[in-house]
Structure formats: C-alpha cells, structure tokens
Specification:
Blueprint lengths: L1 H37 L5 E9 L2 E8 L5 E10 L2 E9 L2 E2 L3 E3 L4 E9 L6 E3 L9 E7 L5 E7 L6
Antiparallel strand pairs: 1-2, 2-7, 3-4, 3-6, 3-9, 4-5, 4-7, 7-8, 9-10
C-alpha cells in the first residue's frame, strides 16, 4: 500500500511539472507575439528646417526601432495639398527610406497640379504651413505625421 501512495505522489508531481512547462511555453509565445507587434516601429520626425539657395531643406530622422519605408510627403498651403518630390544630395529620389536612427537632409520640392513641372519653394513664395508625412513599417502598418514649418523662415 505504501508503494501505491508513492506512485500517486510521483504522478501528481509529474502533472504539476508538465503544467509549469506549459505555462512557460504560453508566456514565451505571448512575449514573442507582443514583441512582433511593438517591435520594428518607425517614428519619423523632421528635426530642423533651413533655407539654402531659395530651397527649403528638412533634416529628417527616424527615431523608431524599425525602418520607415516609402516615405511620402505633402505640402499643405491653405486648401492646397501638393505632393513633394524629395531630393537627397542633389539627386531626386523616387522612394525615400530611413533606417532606424538614420538622418537625411532632404530638399523639398512641391509638384504643382496645374502643370507637370515641379517648382522649388522660393523665398518670394509663402512657405507651407504644414508638411504631412506617410510611411510604412516592415510589418505593413501605415503611419502618418505632420510638422509645422517655422514662420521665421519666410
């Protein structure tokens, strides 16, 4: 009879050990899923604006933990929303991407809707009040932000 009681305690300990292992597995699964959701999130910010040769230059930086893909920008002047064709180091880029902690100096040129040509923001024209940005993460989520252009640059 004593041997039978020992076996039951052994089985109970084995079941408790299995439940503990299952709890650890579930906790690990939850943490992996949570990290996948909150990880690799870009956060693009325009740190500074400057004028150079009549062009508006923006210092754009990604403060997030993941890359910002296909960064698109628009200049908003009153009711007009004009898409921006960015230039980096004097070269026009079709797709602007920022790695984590990467910064780029970007020349902002708005494309006029009335004509197919683009024009630079010159010192005689009023500056845009707001620059809107839209970009994607590697997880496929879309993020948006906006930055006000300082009025003293006008």
């Amino acid at each position: 009879m004593n041997g039978m009681m020992d076996l039951d305690i052994m089985e109970a300990c084995s079941v408790l050990s299995s439940l503990g292992t299952l709890a650890i597995a579930l906790t690990s699964w939850y943490q992996i899923r949570r990290d996948a959701r909150i990880g690799y999130v870009p956060m693009v910010v325009i740190d500074d604006f400057a004028r150079w040769n009549g062009h508006l230059i923006a210092e754009i930086r990604n403060y997030g933990t993941g890359p910002a893909l296909d960064l698109r920008m628009w200049m908003v002047r009153g009711r007009d929303v004009l898409p921006i064709e960015p230039s980096v180091n004097g070269r026009r880029v079709t797709g602007l991407h920022l790695a984590p902690t990467e910064a780029k100096r970007v020349q902002l040129e708005a494309v006029a809707r009335e004509s197919a040509s683009s024009y630079a923001v010159s010192s005689s024209e009023p500056l845009p009040a707001v620059i809107r940005m839209r970009y994607r993460s590697v997880r496929g989520r879309t993020f948006e932000g906006q930055t006000h252009v300082p009025p003293e640059l006008g």
